[in-house]
Amino acid sequence: MSPKDFVFTGRVSEAMHAVVKTVASQREDPMILPKPSISKRPAGDLTWGQDVSVTCSISTQHLGGTFTLQQTSGSFRKSQTSSTNSATFNIPQVTFSNEGSYQCQYQTRVSSRDFNSPQSDSIRLSVTGIVPVSVSDKSFKSRLQIPTE
């Protein structure tokens, strides 16, 4: 049905036109989720072996979805379902392999359809500190080119 199918005049016709236009646009336009936000605690550089938590949050009325935290150039990827508008991912005892940029994404199902948010902005995890190794660790000595006995 299109607006031209209505013969009414005046305010009724304008109201019907608005209703038809709204219904048509809802059928054509998919639901758009906003970009999630991302933060970490503690802020700043991390010390090797320190715990870090990364929180993803989104402003939406469509709760009960899944947050995914992914390292942009690495293998780290974790998902967590949340009944609220946020999820916190704990990364215990960070090492240099945890260094890099991370992004969040939110996915939810509405009326039997899946919707994905855009990727969040990136945050960077930087790890500093001395790696504890045994002095007798031959593989470590070989990487440093220290002669082994």
Molecular structure report:
One of its GO terms (biological process) is cell surface receptor signaling pathway. It comes from Maylandia zebra (zebra mbuna). Keywords: Disulfide bond, Immunoglobulin domain. This is Ig-like domain-containing protein. The structure is a single chain. This protein has 149 residues and is of the alpha+beta class. The protein folds into two domains: 1-30; 37-128, Immunoglobulin-like (Sandwich). The chain is 17% helix and 34% strand. Strand 4 (66-71) and strand 5 (77-81) form a beta hairpin. The longest helix has 19 residues, at 10-28.
Given this structure, which CATH class of the largest domain is correct?
A: Mainly Beta
CATH architecture of the largest domain: Sandwich
Mean pLDDT: 80
Estimated radius of gyration: 26 Å
Q: Please tell me what the overall shape is.
A: elongated
> Percent of residues in helical segments?
10-25%
List the uncertain runs. 22-29
The run of helices and strands is: HEEEEEEEEEEH
Backbone structural class: alpha+beta
What fraction strand? 25-35%
Looking at this structure, what is the CATH superfamily of the largest domain? Immunoglobulins
Gap from first CA to last CA: 87 Å
Q: How many β-strands, per DSSP?
A: 10
Number of separate domains:
2
What's the number of helices?
2
Largest sheet: 5 strands, antiparallel
CATH names the topology of the largest domain as: Immunoglobulin-like
Tags for this model:
149 residues; single chain; three-stranded antiparallel β-sheet; alpha+beta; five-stranded antiparallel β-sheet; 17% helix
